[in-house]
Amino acid sequence: MSDQEKETQEPIKKRTIRSFVVRGGRMTEGQQKNYDTNWREYGLELQDGRISYEAIFSRKSDVVIEVGFGMGASLVEMAKNAPEKDFIGIEVHPPGVAKLMMLAKEEGVHNIRVYCDDAIEVMAKCLPPSEASAFQLFFPDPWHKKKHNKRRIVQSLFAQQVAGVLQDGGHFHMATDWQPYAEHMMEVMEQEVIYVNKAGAGNYHPRPDWRPLTKFEQRGERLGHGVWDLIYTKS
Fold this sequence. Notes:
By secondary structure, the protein is α/β, with parallel strands linked by helices. Helix 4 packs parallel to helix 5 (94-107). It has a single domain, classed as Rossmann fold (3-Layer(aba) Sandwich), CATH 3.40.50.150. The protein has an eight-stranded mixed beta sheet with strand order 1-4-3-2-5-6-8-7, with helices on both faces. The N and C termini lie far apart (53 Å). The protein has helices at residues 3-9, 29-42, 53-57, 73-81, 94-107, 119-125, 156-165, 179-190, 215-222; strands spanning 43-44, 62-67, 85-90, 112-115, 132-138, 166-176, 195-197, 228-234. It catalyses: guanosine(46) in tRNA + S-adenosyl-L-methionine = N(7)-methylguanosine(46) in tRNA + S-adenosyl-L-homocysteine. Its EC number is 2.1.1.33.
């Protein structure tokens, strides 16, 4: 049976926008070993459904959610520098998840947990509503071509979904090194009445101290590339 025939015969799952496009998720033997060894401490499963932050971290705290943490170095650094907070990372790329857990273990960082799944589904099925203190989205795929702009994760629906997991006064922090995407983010967010631009309407925010510079970003700065931060507070 051809793929086309399968598509016509198999039920179609209706879905919202996805937070990612899968790119080479295969792990090396070493990465798989690290993944399996550390998952029991750091891993969270989509299939387990709605979580309690207090139960997961055994305390009440400010909880920060980050989507698309790449190889995890920046998120681990943030968690290490803010032991009074707890962090949940969501990343679909298994090698990145394996690397984050390995780094956390090496650094003795225990205030972090991770999902290896689609952020849209995790937000809908697992994260408690209106409880997170912050939501971070750093350097998402900008989808440079105009015909692909609709694939950008920062859209009105996504902004509303983020608002659903944020507590009142919580902030949605984005960063990008692609100016047209920064402008797109600004356009989307300025139209969302539930958010207030922390830097003032139409303004970008200086990079805050809590967002570490990535190696990619440092290289870009040396080459004269710009980076744009946007921080919006849920009102």
